[in-house]
Every structure is written in C-alpha cells, then in structure tokens.
## 1
Amino acid sequence: MVNLDIESIKKNIRRVVGDKKVLCYVSGGVDSTVLAKLLYETLSPEQIIAVHINHGFMRAGESHDVQKALDSAGMNLRVVHAVDRFLNATTTVDGRETPPLKKVTDPQIKRQIIGDTFMRIQQLIEQELDIDLSNTILAQGTIAPDIIETKAGVKTHHNDSPAVHELRKRGEVLEPFSEFYKPDVRKLGELLGLPKEIVHRQPFPGPGLAIRLICAEEPFLENFDETNSALKMRFENNDVFANLLPIKTVGVKDNKRSYSYAAVLSGQPNWRILFKLAQEIPKSINNINRVVYIFGEKINHVDREITPTLLSKENLSQLRAADKVVNDILTKYDLTRTISQVPVISFPVPFGQIGNRSICIRPFITKDFMTGRPVVPGEDMPEAALDEMVNKIVAEVPGISRVVLDLTPKPPGTTEWE
Ligand code: XMP
C-alpha cells in the first residue's frame, strides 16, 4: 500500500493543474471514477470537464449506470455516443493505415485503434466544447501495473499509448495514481466517500468487450497436429479427454506476451484432477498456455473449423448477453468482492454447431493482477452458481454452443484472453 495522504495528493494535483482546465474521461471503472471524484474534491467545478464516451463495448446498462452514479455524487458528466465511430475507425501502424476496427482480428491493433480513436474523439470534443488546448491537462486513472506491464511488453494499455507518451513529455497528463495498485485506488475511493458498489466494482478493461470477443477469420493451426497428439498422448485417460482448440490466446512467458493454444478438458468435473492437469499441461507442452474445462457432454474430437468472427454489433450483443447472465448471478451469490474479476469471453469454436460460438467464464483471484489464480468451484464459489451460469447461457443466449471454465493461473495465462 502506498501512503494515502489525501492532502498531499490534492496539493500535487493543484500544483500540476494550476489554473488550467482538466479533461477527464470516465470509463465507469474504479480508477477513472475515483479520479473524477478526487478532481471534484480538489479543484473548482468549472475547471473540470468530465466526459464518458460510450464506445459500444460496455456491458449491459453500464453506460447508464456510470452516468447515474456520478450524477448522484453531484458531478456533471457529459456522455458521448460513438459506437459507429469506433467500429469504423482506423489508425496508422508502422506508417500504414489499418483496416477499420470492425475488420481487425489482431488484439493489439484493436487496442491501438480504440486508444487512438479515444484521443481523436477527445480532440473533436475539445473543438465542440471550444476548449483552449494550451490551457488544458488530460487526467487519467493510470495505475502502476498498466505502466509496468506495457513497458515489459506484457500488454499495451490504452492509457499508455505513443500518443500519451507525447503528452507526458510535454507535461500535459495528470496521473495521480501512477504509483498505485488497485487496492490503493479503492481505499482512496472509500476515503473520498464514494459508494461501495462503485469502489469495489470489479475492474473492466478500457477497450471492454472488444478484447473479450475473440476475432478470427481462420483457425489457428500452427503445429496443430503435433501439439494435439502430444496433448492426447501425455494427458488423456479414461476419465478426462483432452483436445486442442484451433485458436490462440495470450499468456505470459518470461514476462513477455506469448500467443499460444488453449487446451480443453472434458469429463467429470473432478476439480482436483482438472486443476492439476491445468498446471501440468502448459509446463509440459510449450505452445499451450491455457487450459479450460468444458461443461456438458464429453468430447473426444474438436473440428478445426471456427466461426469467422469480427467485431460487429450482433457479435457484441451476444457476448453482452452472456456477460450479463454471469454478472447477475455473481451479484445474486454475493461473489463480486471475493472474486477479483470475471472476464466473460466469446471464442469462435462452434463444437459442431455451424455458425455458433462458445463462451468462457474466467473467474480470477489476484492481489495486483501481475499474477493470480483461477477460482476453484466448490471452494471459492458455489458449484450451484457456476451451474446456473452455464445452463442459463446455453438456454438463453442464441448461437452459443458450449460454455467452458478457465482453469489457468497467471502465469502462464493472462487474466484476459487477448
Ligand atoms: P491481463 O490480461 O494482462 O490483465 O492479465 C490484467 C488486468 O488488466 C486489465 N486489462 C486492461 N485494462 N485496457 C485496460 O484498461 C486494456 O487494454 C487491458 N488489458 C487488460 C484486465 O482486465 C485485468 O484487470
């Protein structure tokens, strides 16, 4: 924990801001919401321009909830709807223009387009609101792991993009949480009197559902047969079937991002055995970094086909519906505080039902998100809650074939799949 001396934090903000204006983007997550509140407590209200951009990758009802929560805390939040603008946005990577976001499958390019589009929309907002640039500072809720992991190449955080580096160089970014970890931000939020539902909200990535909808136009098949055979030979038995999925997900190896296969286990949910396998498989097979358990019928073969998937409103709605099922049940069972984060991921494996996708639930426990472990059903969460999620997703979300549970610690598997 860092020293949360609010007065000195405020003093520092006043020193950096002076009599300039501050533009603060509120995503609805803990960091930016606490930051907005801190700014309102520190500066005079007319200095602060707080804006929420709905990029279309939010959860069900989330944009509305953010607005309501900040309104009731007495803040004036402007909301900008920019769903189509994001889906059609491009950016320049290595001197070349990318395709529009709705045609991009590479996660890092998705992040870059989203990050750069945020900056561009910010510029438009500045023009529309007639903001004097030379007199305005950008405030961001960037926390220490965002910077550390971006530097290490583990991820590229949108708060830490090249455009932001430029602003930092010119001293035009205010980042009062840059040495904080999540618990510090929550503690500060409490000290500032924000409601517990907001302060203890699970983290949700800035690019939101865009990085939880795994996009691919073709199956990933690099060394597929060799890897699948090794997996089956070493780890399959009468009780547990093991198969390779024809997709790649991100993981960490030697502190670097690494894209590798996910393996799927099926059979009876004997969690002790399954979690042991989930530890052993990535250690023993180099290009597998993630292991999931599939609910329902045992499978002894996975087709190499995938359902070609890009960021579209329909695909996002499908994921949003599954995410809502999971989150409603987490709330019902009061699990949102004991479990650190529960990414719900759409992946384009149809398991024999043409055109379908599948859903992964990734309940994760961690102190700082640098490392962490998967939730163990029956210990960290009731099996009944999990069963309810699985059954409800398959029954109520159209086009979903199967649901899997992520069993992978970090490392080797990151929290998110992209
Ligand atoms: P990983 O997947 O790297 O995630 O283990 C660690 C934490 O970071 C969040 N995350 C992001 N947050 N923009 C964000 O604002 C991003 O691009 C991003 N990628 C990962 C993730 O949700 C988890 O809390």
## 2
Amino acid sequence: MKVAKFGGTSLADAGQIQKVVQIVKADPTRRIVVVSAPGKRFSGDIKVTDLLIALAKAVLAGRPFESELAAVVERYAGIQQALNLDREVVTEIENDLRCRIQNRCENEAQFLDAIKAAGEDNCAKLMARVFTQQGLPARYVDPREAGMLLSEDFGNAQVLPESYTRLAALRNVPETVVFPGFFGYTQRGQVATFPRGGSDITGSILAAAVGAHQYENFTDVDSVFAIDPRILPNPRPIPVLTYREMRELAYAGFGVFHDEAIVPVVQAKIPICIKNTNRPDAPGTLIVPQRKYRHGEVIGIASADGFSTINLSKYMMNREVGFGRRLLQILEQEQLSFEHVPSGIDSMSVILRRAPLTRKKEEHVLNRIREELRPDDVTIAHDLALIMVVGEGMRYAVGMAAKACAALANTGVNIEMINQGSSEISIMFGVKEMDHKTAVEALGRALLAS
Ligand code: ASP
C-alpha cells in the first residue's frame, strides 16, 4: 500500500488534476491520496492558501471581503467547469467559506488556521468526486473523524502521538481515500495547521500510521537536485538520499520536501519517493534509511537566508557556571527557539531565525541579556545565510572542511561561522547574506564535481 501526496502545482487546474487521476489509477496500490490546496498555475499566480490568508486578514481587519472570497471561489469554479462537475460543488465551497467566517473566534491565529485549512479541505472533497466520476471509487475522509489530532500551536502545530493508532484504521477503507493535507484538529476540536508546506507532513503521518510500503510525494520537478539551479545551472539529479541527508538539506532551503515531514516515516523506515506529476515515469529521488556512498562524496549543498546572530562576549565566560543555561533560558521564556550555539572561550553566539524576532522582542531580549548576564558586550546582526554541505560520504573523510574553506577563501568570502555536527555528515557555514550566492557557487564547483 502506498500513500501518494500531491502538491499545489499538481492540483492547480483541471489539466493537472487529470494527470493526478491517471497517476492514481495507474497503480492500484496507491490507496491513500493526500492533497494540497490548488497552487500556482503559472509564475506570478497566487496559491489558494495565500488567497485564503488575504481573505482572513480582510475579515480580521473588519474590511469588506467579498472580492477576496470571490477570488478563492473562482479558482474552484474554474476547475469545476473544466471538469464538468456539478455546479453545486462550487456553491458548497462558497457556503463552507462563509460558514468559517461566521464562526469567527477571538483568537486570530486560530481563525487564520480555520480559513487556511479550507484550501485543502475543499480540494479533497472535490478530488473525491473527480476520482469517482472517472471510475475510481473514492472517499473524502474528514481529519476530525479519522483522528488527526494536533497540538494547539496554531500555524505551527505538531501531531499528537495518539493520532497514529486512530489513523491506522484508514487501511480498511475499501475506496481510495482522499485526505486533505496541512491541518488537523486539537483535542478541543479546533482546526490547527502545520507550518506552510505542511501537506508533506500529513502524508508522512498517514504513511507511518497505515504502515505503507512507500510514501510517494508528487511535485513539479523530476528529482531532488544537488544544488540550486539558479546558482549553478544543470545540477546533478540525486537518485538516492538517506533520511538524514534529506533532513539536513531540507532544513537549509531544499524546498522540495518539508524538513519536518521526514520524522514520522523514519521510525517505520518507510521509503519516500519524490516524483514529478508532469513526468511520472522519471525515476525521481528515493529517500531511504541507508544507502551506498563513495568515500568523500558530497551529495548536495543547500542554503538559506534569514538568520540572525546574537553575539555575547564576557571575559572569563568559560569559568562562569550556568552562563549558557541562563542565556538559553531567556530565549525559552521569550518563546524563541534557537538554531545553533557556536562558542569560544569568552564568547558565545546564538543563531536564530529572523522571522519571529520582531523589533520589540529583540529589544526586550537584549535588555534581559544585559541585565541578567552582565556581558562585556552584546550585539545582534540580521544578515546571516547558512550553507549546508551534506553527504554520508563525508564521515571519516579527511580534509573535507579544508577543501570547503579553501573554496570560500579563493573567492574572498569570509566565513562568519563554521559548525560540524557529531554525525559528521554535514558541515555548516554561516556567511553574510550578500556573499550567499558566491559562496554556494564556489562550494558547488569545488565539492560537487569530484
Ligand atoms: N497549502 C499549504 C501551503 O501553501 C500547504 C501545502 O501546500 O503543503 O503552505
């Protein structure tokens, strides 16, 4: 049994939906289908999820929202007409949206999630009809009834462990299951969504829950590539990756698969196959627990902007018991998660994502650090990019860091930070955002060609 997840571009219009129907019909083991909301039809188009966010914001601001609502309904109407579905499909979607707006709750994040979830939910209902109409009996499954239970972190929810046993019952549904991605319900019955791109996570949870033999993730590229083609053209496609390699690459910007989506399938050792809806016969990329690798081989290089660094220095820091704990405790109390903590004898830096660090929060955190830790100096910089050089073959390979550092030095890029985890399958470099592209290109040329 396979779980097949289709991303937004695979469901963007009637033409793409027809491809999805053919793919699902072609393999009877594709028993559970997870869908995103319709995505971009062309570059510059707007995803349904973003249209829904605009709708929710208009409602929250107390502005008229009819045009935002019409923009969402119109996307589904286009699909309904092209596929000759009953007109009532569109009426139901419009009623559903109005009902969600009417049931507006006090908590803004919670309301936003209820509206965002409408994209996937209505797409799943529509797809169940399309499959059935085209001769494949299918059933829409409501995540609430199926038991997709999530934490109350609206917009950033996590699955609750008890979901797995409940969702296992999906194995026994006789029809093809069509399950909406991206959202579930809290214990108290509120809609909650995963982070953006979270339908990948839904697919992975379902694959683990039903014990699928493969989790297929259909997107719009033939495979995962070794490096961003906008930085180094014609990169090598990667046929096989390990979970750990994919997690590291996805963490630092390989957008093809959500980094959190690896977790549910890891324990169950279910292989993930990334495939292209537009070319389903292309082999794609297989993600597995282990693979054969060449000694010294780098499989991919990923990078992402948008990090900030808090730098502290204090003479004799190394002798001050509890300094690190108290620093991290401040971040914990301010609800900020940290990414890395490189340190020296008298200095310590904390790397965080820039997005949650509002100006007000930043000021407050720095003040607390000054008052509670009394450092000699504390500064913050907002222009850090992280680059991950990843490969199982890097383990025990002497000279990998030297090769990478030499490549950066030769292009005149200053390394702000370097970090190698104990797993030794990746080296992370921090560089200024303005050096980001130059650095990745230099690393790609030096390390991927070998
Ligand atoms: N539709 C949601 C988003 O755009 C979730 C997903 O597509 O995975 O983020």
## 3
Amino acid sequence: MKRSDRPVRLAILLLAGLGLSACATPPAATRAEAPARPAWALVIHGGAGVMDRETMGPETEASYRAAMQAALARGRAVLDTGGTSLDAVIAVVRGLEDDPQFNAGKGAVFTADGRNELDAAIMDGATLKAGAVAGITGTKNPITLARAVMEKSPHVMLIGAGAEKFGQQAGVEQADAAWFFTERRWQSLKKTLKEKGLPVPARPAGVGPEPVPLAAADMPFEDRKYGTVGVVALDNAGHVAAGTSTGGTTAKLWGRVGDVPIIGAGTYANDKSCAVSATGTGEYFIRLGVARAICDLVELKGMSLQQAADEVIQARLTALGGDGGIVAVTPDGQVAWSFNTSGMYRARQVAGGEPLVGIFKGEP
Ligand code: ASP
C-alpha cells in the first residue's frame, strides 16, 4: 500500500465499523429495560433551610403542604392538557409569588435598607433561550418579566430601573412596595439587623404602623428558612424548562444579586441534559455554577439525574460550605431533588403517578 493510500483505507474501515455498530441490534435486556418517557413531569421547590417539625408547628406545616399541592395542581392543569413546560413553569411560579408564605413576589425578604429587591429567571431547554431580571422593586410577578425579557427583548438579563421600564412598555403588571410587604418578613429583618448591630430602617410607605402587640403569625422566623420558589417541567413534546423567583436573602446589601437570575447557577434548562432550579445561599451556587454543573454531569459523564444532583449538592456544595438544594428533571422523565439542609419545601409528580410532597429530610 502506498503511504498516501493509508488514510483512505483507514477511513473506509472506520466507516464500515460505525455502520456495523449502528445496525447492531441491542441485547434484548437493554431494549426491555428502557422505560417509556412519561407524558409530562413536574418538580417544585419552595425554598430550603433549617426546618424542624416541632418549631414549625402542625398548622404551618399543613399550610406549606397545601401550598405545594396547590402548586402541583396548577402545573398539572397546564401539562395534562398538552401545554408547554414554559407555560407550566409560569403558572406555578406566579402562584407561589402571590403566596405570602414564600420568599418571592409578595412576602419577599427585605434588604438591609428595608426594600424588596426581587430576582427571577426562566429558561427554555428546547431553544436555550433565557430571560432573567434582578433588583426588581415594582413588578408584581418577576417571573413574567423574565419571560418578557426572553421573548420580547434581544437580551438575556435586565436589571433594576431599566428592567422595570422594559416591563412597563411590554405591559407587565406593576405593583407598589406595599404589595410585597408582609409583617413577618419585616420583623425578621428587624431581628437580623439587631443581631448584627445594624440600624433598622423606616417602615416602607403605605404599610401602616407596626401592630402592637404582634400577632403570632407576624413573629419573626426563628429558623433560617429561605422560601425561594422554583419549578422544572417536562412537557408532552419532550421539552424541559426551568424557572426560579426570589427576594434573595434577609438583610442582603442593597444591589446584591443572587444565583437565581444567573443562568447556569440557580436556573438552567437544556433538552440535551436536564432542567434545574436551585435554592440556598446564592453566593455558593454562583461560584459552583450549580445548575449547569448538574446538567453537564448528565450530558458529558452519563450520570443519572439523581447521581449528578447528589454529586453537586451533597459533595461539592457541602465541601465549599454552602447550603441549599435543587429540583431537576430530564427530557426522558427522570425527576430528582437533593438538598443538604434539614428541610426543603418540595413536590413532584409524573404523568400517571401520584403527587409527592415533602418538607423535612428523611421523607421520601
Ligand atoms: N438562592 C437565593 C439567593 O441567594 C436565596 C434562596 O434560595 O433562598 O438569592
């Protein structure tokens, strides 16, 4: 064989080999084991943190469980009727943003200077389009603004006043500071600032004077609960999407942006791997690129979704000193959650299966 013939012969051999392996019939066992993809799947979180059944009390526990069931029902209504994963994400997140029990939209935590600065993001696994907003103070549902950024602007992320102006022009519903205010979050801010020896700012305009005495429901949170909300969904067409919305962390410095609107940190979706929504101390999730890291392990290392989630949350996040968790779904219908805190409000359901709701560690 002439030296110059060699590459041609090699290429022919390679092609023949590839053809053979492509035509080869997989062993019967492999074929039988491949599970059918469920028509849809939905996994939701309502924040992770220190959660203890006794401190929480039966009424609060029941109320959060009911909120998680209601969130599942909203997503199920979209997916069961052939709606898209993006629409399911919006339906679920908007409902949780309007629920004052969660740290997103109404009921968000306050910055150290007494304002609500909200972050949100959404991502479409089919197109890799994403929309994110940060430092939002006057938009009722930040997740809807994030979707408008994704669909109606040439950008991925808008912040502060510019984001609000864009939202007004796009017809996104506005709200004033009083809409987001809850006495309980205000009392939590006061408690945190006093513990840190920092001054307590004036109450926001339009919320009235502090009630004396405080009702039991207005007492500051004892435990460190986050309450960010997030959803991942798989739809009938096989597309995944993720969305997350938060007020951030109590007494954060004004202007601080967390992981939620950072694509790949707190929110990520890709039809080639998975969709992830995170909750926890955002700084760690940003540094580890948590959501993207999980999807990369699925795509590039062939890990199952649960293995990948545990590798990033239980091993990497814990090793760095971070706390929190994630929910995730793959286009083939695997669902997972993983958290290294004592609790995470969470719920999931797969088409044809039963809803599953949990709060504390050790529940199924
Ligand atoms: N990850 C959010 C943030 O750091 C907070 C949370 O999940 O509770 O902004």
